[in-house]
Target: Respiratory growth induced protein 1
Amino acid sequence: MAKKHLRREIHVEPNHIDHLSAPPKVRSSKEMNFDSLDDFHRYVKDETWDNEFDNLNLRLRYLPPFIVSQTHGQEEKIKPQMNSLNKKFRRHLNHHVQRHLLPDIKKMSGIDYEFKKAGEEMVPNAYGTCSVYKWHFEDHSNHGFDESEFANRDHWNVNVDIESNSSDPYVVVNFTASPVEQPTLVEEMQTTIV
Model:
């Protein structure tokens, strides 16, 4: 009877990071793949707790919530027109990305990301049998921190690529946070000489 109480999952609210601290000496984050939006959010939150939010490479493949709502969670009820060729699907997906996915990443990471749309395109494959609709968001800002905060930690960039293809309603999200290469003293001297 006591074991039932030990298995209960504990939900912890994400914390907001006000000040940067030194990065961990040993990094444990690696490339991860997810099939659930909740697992993705939980991992982003956990990496923030572990202070490894600046070095992530995550891939998520999921059915968007508006498709799950329309099909009542039953994949056999997915209609053939529920894909990126449908304007209504793209409009709903864009709304989901702008109003839910990106703000949830911001909330779960605890960092004030300022995602800006860097591109949107439809790319057909070589044979013309299907196409992929892509959105690209990026944040190359200071993420709400003062420049003095980066004395302990390097700057990092965040890129979010969202893809939806014309064969099914699944959405693929690639979330990458990577440190910015700081120029070395020799490189700085070479650029000032030229």
Residues 87-109 form the longest helix (23 residues).
